[in-house]
Amino acid sequence: MYRSHVLVCGGTGCTSSGSAKIIETLQAEIDKNGLHDEVQVVKTGCFGLCALGPIMIVYPEGSFYSMVKEEDIPEIVSEHLLKGRIVSRLLYQETVTDDGIKALNDTSFYKKQLRIALRNCGVINPENIDEYIGTDGYAALGKVLTEMTPEQVIQEILDSGLRGRGGGGFPTGMKWKLARNIVPDADQKYVCCNADEGDPGAFMDRSVLEGDPHVVLEAMAIAGYAIGANQGYIYVRAEYPIAIQRLEIAINQAREYGLLGKNIFNSGFDFDIDLRLGAGAFVCGEETALMTSIEGNRGEPRPRPPFPAEKGLYGKPTILNNVETYANIPRIILNGAKWFSEMGTEKSKGTKVFALGGKINNTGLVEVPMGTTLREVVEEIGGGIPNGKKFKAAQTGGPSGGCIPAEHFDVPIDYDNLIAIGSMMGSGGLIVMDEDNCMVDIAKFFLEFTVDESCGKCTPCRVGTKRLYEMLDKITKGQGTLEDIDKMEELCYYIKANSLCGLGQTAPNPVLSTLKFFRDEYIAHVVDKKCPAGVCKDLLQFTIEKDKCIGCGMCAKQCPANAITRTDYIAPGKKLAAFEIDPAKCVKCGACIEKCKPGAIYKK
Amino acid sequence: MDMINVKINGVEVSAPKGTTILQAARMANIDIPTLCYLKDINEIGACRICVVEADEGRGKRLVASCVYPITEGMQVYTNTPNVLESRKKTLQLILSTHDKKCTSCVRSENCELKKMANDMGLTDEFKYEGENIQYEIDDSAAHMIRDNNKCILCRRCVAVCNANQGVGVIGANERGFKTHISSAFELGLGTTSCISCGQCIAVCPVGAITEKDSTDDVLKAIADEKKFVIVQTAPAVRAALGEEFGYEMGTNVEGKMAAALRRIGFDKVFDTNFAADLTIMEEATELVERVTNGGKLPMITSCSPGWIKYCEHYFPDMTENLSSCKSPMQMFGATAKTYYAEKMGIDPKDMVVVAVMPCTAKKFEIGRDDQNAAGVPDVDISITTRELARLIKRCGIKFDKLADEQFDQPLGIGTGAAVIFGATGGVMEAALRTAVKMITGSEAGDINFTEVRGVAGIKEASYKVGDLDVKVAVASGTANAAELLKKVQNGEADYTFIEIMGCPGGCVNGGGQPQVPASVRNFEDIRAIRAKALYDQDAASEIRLSHENPAIKSLYEEFFEKPGSHKAHEILHTSYVKRGLY
Amino acid sequence: MKSLDELKAIRDRMKGQVDIREEGSDATRVVVGMATCGIAAGARPVLTAFSNAVQERDLQNVAVVQTGCIGLCMYEPIVEVYKADGEKTTYVKVKPEMVEEIIDQHIIKGNVVTKYTIETAKLG
Which domain holds residue A300? Predict the structure, then answer.
């Protein structure tokens, strides 16, 4: 029995900020102090506060050390682990109050969170199946195999109201039911897991796979039992090496324990899982493209119908759920549909994980009940916007979603509300924008992503998004007209209605939602030839206010384009001649502004 | 069968479950334009031209009619403003990436895209003009040119190359706006294991894939007074050439074709049918010899250069099974430049043999090694049926007004057995007719071997010839050929003789035949319609046995002595290369 | 593994281990007020004494944790003992020498050492 557990995050974020080295040093230091029988070091999955990595939690105190450096380790070991004295200067400062130290769960970042899908992330060692079992892991699989019929399992999921967490929000139980029943005499069915997380900034699936891989395996086996499949595939992008490694370990451990393989729990049910690595094409998150890719072909969507429940992988009935969806399944089985359906809103049950990013203090991964307002997420959990700037909009749903303006700040977040205001849940990326963000530029950014990631199969998406991008580009360069805005809007609706798959059908959303809520910004770009947020370079002019210029020349030294030269004008009260910027040479990089001490350089 | 009832533009239609909206609309005599769709081959719903509004009780939605199945009670609208406007935008977007050099495009007359734009009443083809990628033109292959600047990414070519031919040397590279059709690693087609069948050309709706045009070379040769220019025409050409001049598909225009060739200025107008009969003599002899002397079996026909190249690339271990006979075109050239040149006192170097073929692989074949019996290439220029039509038009010949004429003698004489070479199973049937005589010494009771006729991809039959059980198989389209050959390799089948044609349905559907728009292709079987013209000609022929061809008889008497003689082997037979993949 | 019992055996073995990482678990928690006021009043030696005593006795399911100011600075050092059933006892003006008694009487035997509790202090 260890008296203390030190949990170090081994998620991708913390690994890249050096957590592997931290673990090594920590273990060495613990050994040196003779604490190896008393203190256990556990490498866990993601805690969610990735911006603060490497992260370390010491239990039982729950002391949350953030941005841990190797040289801090001896002090933490000798003070905290040996002497029980928390090294408060190294703690996540939000846990340190005037009154002492708060539990992590009491910090604003965690207080409003409700962790179901992420419940084991940052708590257990994902490479040890026993720890998963210790938190009731595989008990749900045991329950369905020994106590429930497949129909009862499906009914439980239906009753829970769980909807797909990958974007569309299709009722999971309904998907399973169709796959069970639609082809009654199918000789083979498949259960697939979509771990091809592709929205820019979204990484909840990666975190679950890294922090709690067994939950996905268990849920897939449950799904296999429910629909009558004995083979599962996890399609995971090759850019997730840690997730892949942990999944491989987890699959092997589950096979060793007989929790995957033949005759699981002596029930006669066989189920096994294999990994399939994707090359990271965004479109492979689309279900038919994903299956085409697993089959060994170029990842392109195919027309639906037939839907995968009827003709999916290798032409067989198939269900595909995303990682986060699966992460909810065992809890629903163990705690019951009623427990789950009591959380959330009328039509969106349970919780949703969001990846907070952009202009927000606490960037990271948060899980909140459906129906939490955007304000709560941004201001309370996210800690608001840095530098006292004003909230302008939040982008949800990644390249398929839209921008939600401040006027909808208090809308409870769920599937239907987001669609009603022109965005969508997507996989849960949530990017916060402040007054310094140009909404035309934002739309252009997302569209550029879609143009690059379109598979190129259907015309509206392949050519339409490209032409749309060109129109946006024209507008950001001040070459657009009011007619272009109309033409663009018309093209948006066309692409939505005519594209082959979800990628194209949602690609114009960032443009349409910004047009809807921030049309004045578009108009400023085309009529006034101004970018109100001061982002679009072609519409900016950098000028030196001569009377403020002290003639120090720092700006000229900094200028990469040699666009700044000295004039012969000496401002009243100044000793040296002022500088000026040649707009023809200026590349608008902004380097001069940063160096100007008297603040004499403006962009407008 | 479950019948589904729908309403299309208010018209009630009842169709079996699984019918697409496109097919159901056709049943109600409503045409829906399509671009990427090829029935059974390319059902990918990619171009979105065929969108219609469908209401399945949840309101109208735009769906791709080519792949969307009808459901009970569905209401379909094919001509609403939303539908028409959507199609128009799709077309405008496609046109924004299309190199619109219509005036100089070889497809100007039968471009499916151009026709569609006209049909839709499109007035602004530049609406979505924007940045485009400039692609290099690939002319590395012997037979064709790929111009991606004209490609509209319908992927029909990719589909036929994969599905029908099992070759798959082209596919989509890159993605998004940069998507383009190309070979792996952007290799030139000439360096890949492309078999030159030209099926991609036959289905291309625009001018992105075309054969290498040799019409100027033909005119130049004819204009050269020092050259004696003779022409031969393959059996299948006469069954399709008329389509280029407004004749109904399946019209045999042999007589007008001979007349037109004479007016173009060829010194002699001959017929490849002559050489087809010669091929039968040699091939039947080879077969009998292999059977009696324990040679490599099954023996496989070698008339189709697309098939030959396929075998060399994909089944190099089976090249010994190929008959050593040159193709009829090459036998013709070899005979013309030896026997005929000698007879006429012409130096073979001054003789130009032009071949009109339903085929693009023939352009590759004329450059093969071991195809130069007289020390010069057996055939100098091989043009497609399409190129012949272009020549006729360029020379101002009013094709439909011409009176029928005959081929010249003696290389213009062919039998009914020869003319069916143009359809799948035809070579087999012609060979069987003669083989029976060779083996048993007497004519077959019924010379119609109907078991090997028809458009099925693989056909099998078994005949009792004398004491021999002759098991035969016929395949067309190299994907079918591969299926058949795998059975042979696995020992699941023990055929004596196999006929393989590179193109599905045989030469009538060759890669050099007139392009048939998808709007026709998807609803009619061009293979069967064109083949019928050939079988009709066979049935009406006085002589239907190759060994009865008087010109062939005298050829052996005067020159080759007998089929399979040493001289015949030197001139009429060839060898193969084990190419392998890449 | 072929039965639920086998699964349960692993679960039971692991549960105690993993539970320590869950706040609000069934462990007894000894919470030492370690704000400036507490430290000034001598909370640090008290915390160390508790930690050492718990370790010496190899007490499982007892967590010694620190907390901030409880708001009663005049009674510092304050130690709160939370039993698994949620019962809370507040000891005030705790000195290191009182620690052994609190551990042995209260935490191990379950008898609150009333002479050190806040109620007694207020009454006094």
Answer: 129-340
> What is the span of the domain harbouring residue B236?
216-572
Q: What is the CATH number of the domain that holds B135?
A: 3.30.70.20
b/e per residue A536-549 (b: at least 16 CB within 10 A): bbebbebebebeeb
Q: How far is residue B26's CA from residue B29's CA, in Å, rounded to a whole number? A: 5
Residue B140: pLDDT band with limits 50, 70, 90:
very high
Which among C7, C13, C20 has the least Cβ separation from residue A142? Answer: C7
B81-97 and B112-119 are packed helices; what angle lies between their axes, rounded to 10 degrees? 140
How far C106 CA sits from the closest chain A CA (Å)?
20
- Three-class secondary structure of residue C59 per DSSP: coil
Helices (H), A358-438: 374-375, 415-420
**Is the predicted pLDDT of residue B88 greater than 70, yes or no?**
yes
Does A291 share its domain with A325? yes
State how far the Cα of A162 lies from the Cα of A332, in Å rounded to an integer.
9
Last residue of a domain, one of A382, A399, A434: A434
Task: Using a cut of 0.90, tell me whether the model's pTM lies above it.
Answer: no
Is the CB of A100 less than 8 angstroms away from the CB of C66? yes
pLDDT at A602 over 80: yes
Q: How far apart are CA B69 and CA B62, in angstroms?
A: 13
Contact check, Cβ <8 Å, A101/C17: no
Q: Does A467 touch chain B (CB under 8 A)?
A: yes
Residue A55 is part of a domain; what is its CATH number?
Answer: 3.40.30.10
Do the Cβ atoms of B48 and A498 come within 8 Å? Answer: yes
CB contacts, 8 Å: A454 with chain B? 175-177
The per-residue pLDDT for range A54-95, each reduced to its tens digit, is: 989 888 777 889 899 999 999 998 888 876 678 888 888 877
How close is the nearest chain A Cα to the Cα of B64, in Å?
8
Name which of A1, A35, A59, A96 to mutate to probe chain C: the one with the most chain C Cβ atoms within 10 A of its Cβ: A59
Does some domain include residue B96? no
Same domain for B371 and B485, yes or no, is: yes
Residue B122: predicted pLDDT: 95
Q: Are residues A413 and A472 in the same domain?
A: no
Percent of chain A with pLDDT over 70: 98
Which helix (DSSP H) or strand (DSSP E) does residue A7 occupy? strand A4-9
Whether residue A495 lies within 8 A of chain B, CB to CB, comes out as: no
Minimal CA–CA distance to A428: which of A59, A82, A25, A117? Answer: A117
Indicate the burial class of A562 (C-beta count within 10 angstroms; 0-12, 13-18, 19 or more): exposed
**Mean pLDDT (chain B, rounded):** 96
CATH of C23-123, one of 3.40.50.2300, 1.20.140.150, 3.40.30.10, 3.40.50.300: 3.40.30.10
Q: Are residues B526 and B388 in the same domain?
A: yes
Q: Do residues B339 and B402 both lie within one domain?
A: yes
The residue assigned the tokens 């019929």 is: A149
Interchain contact A139–C (C-beta under 8 A): yes
Which of A99, A123, A137 is nearest residue C68 as measured by Cβ atoms? A99
What was the pLDDT predicted at A83? 66
Q: Residue B545 sits in a domain of what CATH number?
A: 3.40.50.1780
B222 and B165 inside one domain: no
Average pLDDT score over residue span B143-172: 97
Residues of A in contact with B82 (CB under 8 A): 497
Scanning the structure block, which residue is given the tokens 């004398």? B466
Number of domains forming the structure of chain A: 5
Please, which chains are in contact with B (at least 3 CB pairs closer than 8 A)?
A
pLDDT, one tens digit per residue, over B242-292 is 999 999 999 999 999 999 999 999 999 999 999 999 999 999 999 999 999
Mean of pLDDT over chain C: 79
If we measure between CA atoms, which residue out of B262, B209, B268, B277 comes closest to residue B388? B262
% of chain C with per-residue pLDDT over 90 = 13
A453-468 pLDDT tens trace? 999 999 999 999 999 9
Does the residue B189 lie in any domain? Answer: yes
